[in-house]
Amino acid sequence: MSSTTKLQFARKKLLLTEIPFQLRVVSYLRISCSVAQKEDLRYSNLMRALISHDVDWWKTCRINMAGGLTSSDPTINALLHPIEALYQSESLLLAA
Question: Quick check: 61 and 50 in contact, CB under 8 A?
Fold first, then answer.
């Protein structure tokens, strides 16, 4: 499965309202991190950082108009930024 296909699949999972929000968010992050090739975007590192900051970090999150994940907490938003940047770079590649 290509990186673009995986990212599209992750975004679809995030938008499925039949699944509890926490599970959608975790699944989205796991799939997204599997696409990233950088060590600092490993799923375990990201989850450790999120949980260290706030055990209920996912409760501060929402799905934005673009279908991505954002948080009302600036620290969590900063931790999620590399994931969202990954989607932006893939969107630019698809548009080219």
Answer: no
